[in-house]
Amino acid sequence: MFMAFCLNAFGQEKIEINENDYQNSGVEMADVMRSEGKIYVLVGIIGIVLSGILVYVISTDRKVARLEKAMKED
Amino acid sequence: MKSYWWKILTVALLAFTLTAGLLLDVPRLPILNETIRALHFHVTMWFGMILMLMVAVVYSVKFLRSNDLKHDDMAVEFTNAAILFGVLGIVTGMLWAKFTWGDYWSGDPKQNASAIGLLMYFAYLILRNSLTDVHQRARIGAVYNIFAFAAFIPLIFVLPRLTDSLHPGNGGNPGFNAYDLDSKLRMVFYPAIIAWTLLGTWISTIRVRLRRIERKFEDKLINQVS
Q: Do A67 and B33 touch (CB under 8 A)?
């Protein structure tokens, strides 16, 4: 009974993240990718995609601004 | 719309989100592994969606008070961008779930609730398009928008917490602030929310401006005929 209560209480507790979690090499992470520098390739690829979208948004913004100006003139 | 400083801020914050979100150290947690970084890309979609829906509700109220169609433009376009974010949120969530919970769709209460929420907002768009009179459309749309938001919030924030859910912070799962409490994650997470929300705002405002030009153009055509 007491045991069950303890387990229950434990289940509700928040798991805190501490410094050890950053050092825990038992958990697999993209370490190989990082050590070979390939992660930067990924950052570059996503960066290109994002900047492409942003250029598109900016050019649409300008197009609209031009239309607004033309509308005001006549 | 003359000031554009916030657009520069958007680009800067997005660049920061991307680089810091992918490169900074993250806690090494089992099962999650590197996918913990999705915090900056998946979770922020929902935060952005809710912030934009709030803006839409404010403008819906403004429309009902003033009957000015320019407020309706804002309400629709912010809802549109919010729906886009919601769809992206649910798709990215499915991909993330496949590799951490084992399935694209596990019928998790929060997954189901957010799907229902999205359907409610799809219905909003269909409702609007089924009405031909612009004032009637704006009026009914505004009322629906307010009620949809009032139903959406308990649907995704309250109800999943009352049952068991795989999402952190629900049922017996540790609260989301377990990750949130981690200052290194928070340092990217908060700017990321602002970045994505600003991007959504940017897209919304461009489409609002287009709508207004269109209306002006139509008015001009009508005036020429008469």
A: no
Q: What is the pLDDT of residues B185-222, one digit of tens each?
A: 888 899 999 999 999 999 999 999 999 999 988 888 88
DSSP B119-181: HHHHHHHHHHHT--SHHHHHHHHHHHHHHHHHHHHIIIIIHHHHS--SSTTSTTSPPTHHHHT
What's the number of domains chain A is made of?
Answer: 1
The full set of domain ranges for chain B reads 5-225
Say if pTM beats, i.e. exceeds, 0.80.
yes
pLDDT for residue A4:
46
Write down how long chain A is: 74
Residue A61: which domain range? 33-74
Instruction: Please judge whether A29 and B34 are an interchain contact, meaning their C-beta atoms are less than 8 angstroms apart.
Output: yes
Domain for residue A15, yes or no? Answer: no
Instruction: Name the DSSP letter for residue A16.
Output: P
Checking ipTM against 0.85, whether it exceeds it is no
Nearest to A14 among B14, B22, B175 (CB): B175
Question: Rounded to an integer, what distance in angstroms lies between the CA atom of residue B185 and that of residue A21?
Answer: 13
- Confidence bin at A37 (pLDDT 50/70/90): low
Q: What is the distance between the alpha carbons of residues B134 and B69, in angstroms, rounded to a whole number?
A: 8
Does any CB of chain B come closer than 8 Å to the CB of residue A17? yes
Q: What is the DSSP letter of B102?
A: S
CB contact under 8 A, B29 and A17: yes
pLDDT per residue as tens digits for the range B79-98: 999 999 999 999 999 998 88
